Amino acid sequence: MPFGESTPFILIARCHVKQDCLAATRPPPDAQVADKAVKESEPGMLHHTFDQDPTDPLAFTWSEVYKDDASLLCHLTNPPLVKFVEQHGEMGDDFSVEIYGTIAPATKEACNALPFPVKYFDTKFGYSRVA
């Protein structure tokens, strides 16, 4: 199977919330709002979870599986996500993204314009059963 803009891939977004902006045992409410909106408006988002780091209660990870590049490009311009990123800029002190899977150069260009670092892990071989 050739990997590229029409194949599924994984995105991991790591964020850290400022101590004074969050009760350590609760996810930020803006994350819950963003998750609900993404579920309702992005059919190409196949998996979307917000996971808390077991060793740092202020560190969270978005685990996401996309159907294809078009699904990621839709996500990047979805108003609830844009709002979450803006709010995290006020509440958080760190945010980075890792993409596991091959995406098109144009999609990487769109990601490189984001206000946080993105690291790419292009697929060399393997398979996906995500349809």
From TrEMBL:
Source organism (scientific name): Emiliania huxleyi (strain CCMP1516)
Record-given protein name: ABM domain-containing protein
Domain ABM span(s) in chain numbering: 9-103
Source organism superkingdom: Eukaryota
